[in-house]
Amino acid sequence: STAETTVVANDVLGKINFKAPLEASGTDAILVGASIHALATDTFAADNNATDLIFSTGASETATEKARISSDGKLGIGTGGNVDELLHVQNDSNNAVIKIEAGSSGTGARLQMISATNDTAEFYLGDSGDSNIGRISYNHTNNYLAIHTNDTEHLRLDSNGKLGIGETSPTGYVHISPPSGNAPTMYFEQYTSATD
Questions:
Q1: In the chain, fewer beta carbons within 10 Å around the N or the C end?
Q2: C-alpha to C-alpha distance for 69 and 53, rounded to whole angstroms
Q3: Residue 193 pLDDT more than 80?
Q4: Confidence class of residue 196 from pLDDT cuts 50, 70 and 90?
Q5: ∠17-26-22 over CA atoms, to 5°?
Q6: Could you tell me the CA-to-CA distances from 196 to 4, 56, 83 in Å, in that order?
Q7: Could you count the other beta carbons within 10 Å of the beta carbon of residue 187?
Q8: Residue predicted with more confidence, 192 or 41
Q9: What is the sign, positive or negative, of the torsion defined by CA atoms of 95, 99, 105, 106?
Q10: Beta-carbon contacts of residue 8 (< 8 Å; ≥ 6 apart)
């Protein structure tokens, strides 16, 4: 606990260090290898005690922050204090990868998204300029699957299995509706193997 009588942002309320100070190897071996500490994120008041819980680990240095649970219950991994979503994973030096792996034969790996019956489940494919410039969405109100590229819906599979390309209300099992001024076309090309 802290002895502060006026707690402000970035005050440490308490900290647990994990270390091996008697390790004979010395140098990195006797540094703090891991720690957990509570950090105030705002000035405390009668109606405010906003606190993040921070988890730090080290590999060949004093432990540094690797994950935190924010005061509003969001989990950030590699984000520092910038935790934007319920789960936020960030890697500034390499690819940010989340791995889901089944443990044994006969078991599957699944990513399940469940939304309200009158809302949408969406998978965003964004970049630093637009967080959802590409996306795959399932509309539960009308039960259709849509694919968006460059912030525009280009393909829809409706609840009856009809596919619309450039068409949000397909009337046939394949319904192509090109942009204005373009003819509806499909292009088929026969594969020809290369010869010397």
A1: C
A2: 5
A3: no
A4: low
A5: 55
A6: 82, 61, 58
A7: 4
A8: 41
A9: negative
A10: 40, 42, 43, 44
